[in-house]
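Whiteboard transcription, Tuesday session. T.W. wrote the structure tokens on the left side:
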């Protein structure tokens, strides 16, 4: 089941006896756990019927004993097991998962790990409960997720602002939602469209000096703009680490190389193939005019070389700002 389906069922009070929540993305695990914790029982029922256990302090037998209790003066009891990845023999839960109590809602947080699909425990929970794997988003998926999250709150965001957020905040959804919620409060309910100016003012990401704008300038061979951005990066290398810039440019030129071999270069076809927002397709069309395929291959090789140099290989002692100047000069000339 998807996250949305699980939440929808919970809202309709369709409860399963076991919710095994596993994977690398903590946001969905926390959202499902918090919903169950806050909504299955009333405040009066929680005192006797809601228990939180921690994996580092317990064994599988403790979970089984708690889950086999019957609720007191309530239809359900809720058992929440946090940090379950620290339980030494998680497979011992099989004896309970094969015959769980319908009056118990057992929630197991199994962060940063997943159950082996070949094991009996996996198959048993899949049959009698909910197995949910919470996966990290890929970089290119973040803007779409941001759009969806804001739409649920009655707001929209322009493509550039969404890209800035994705670059600055990465793929950690808990961090992203925290910043978006703060931003929503800062701009007020009357503002429905979030722009890059809102991002710059309230989150601190420069709308003019960032890796997104550098990429755009490099693809367009806008030497003046690229140099201004590089100078800004050089003055603040901690905020703009060269390793992040080289990775961004590497991904950009990989996509540009793929662009050459696409049979259909219409906007939506390119966006789908390169996994980018259609808003940015024009940048790659521009880049293809300025960089022949042979040059793109050379650029990718340069980016590998300078990424290694920035990490101290080949005994490079050049400052990051100077390395970036060299790199961008060689790319654009």
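and on the right, the sequence the group agreed on:
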């Amino acid at each position: 089941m998807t996250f949305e389906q699980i939440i929808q069922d919970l809202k309709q009070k369709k409860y399963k006896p076991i919710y095994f929540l596993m994977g690398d993305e903590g946001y969905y695990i926390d959202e499902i756990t918090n919903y169950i914790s806050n909504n299955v029982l009333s405040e009066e029922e929680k005192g006797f019927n809601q228990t939180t256990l921690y994996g580092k302090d317990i064994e599988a037998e403790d979970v089984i004993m708690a889950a086999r209790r019957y609720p007191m003066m309530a239809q359900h009891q809720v058992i929440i097991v946090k940090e379950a990845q620290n339980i030494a023999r998680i497979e011992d839960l099989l004896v309970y998962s094969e015959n769980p109590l319908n009056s118990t809602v057992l929630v197991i947080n199994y962060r940063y790990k997943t159950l082996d699909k070949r094991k009996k425990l996996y198959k048993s929970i899949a049959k009698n409960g909910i197995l949910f794997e919470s996966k990290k988003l890929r970089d290119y998926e973040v803007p779409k997720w941001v759009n969806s999250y804001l739409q649920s709150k009655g707001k929209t965001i322009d493509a550039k602002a969404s890209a800035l957020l994705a670059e600055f905040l990465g793929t950690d959804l808990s961090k992203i939602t925290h910043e978006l919620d703060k931003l929503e409060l800062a701009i007020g309910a009357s503002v429905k469209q979030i722009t890059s100016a809102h991002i710059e003012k309230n989150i601190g990401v420069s709308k003019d000096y960032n890796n997104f704008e550098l990429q755009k300038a490099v693809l367009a061979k806008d030497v003046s703009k690229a140099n201004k951005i590089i100078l800004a990066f050089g003055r603040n290398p901690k905020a703009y680490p060269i390793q992040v810039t080289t990775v961004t440019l590497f991904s950009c030129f990989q996509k540009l190389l793929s662009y050459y071999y696409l049979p259909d270069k219409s906007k939506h076809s390119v966006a789908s193939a390169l996994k980018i927002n259609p808003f940015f397709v024009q940048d790659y069309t521009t880049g293809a005019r300025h960089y022949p395929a042979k040059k793109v291959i050379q650029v990718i090789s340069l980016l590998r070389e300078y990424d290694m140099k920035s990490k101290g290989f080949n005994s490079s002692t050049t400052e990051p700002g100077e390395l970036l100047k060299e790199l961008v000069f060689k790319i654009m000339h």
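Someone added at the bottom: Residues 3-134 form a domain with the Rossmann fold fold (CATH 3.40.50.300).
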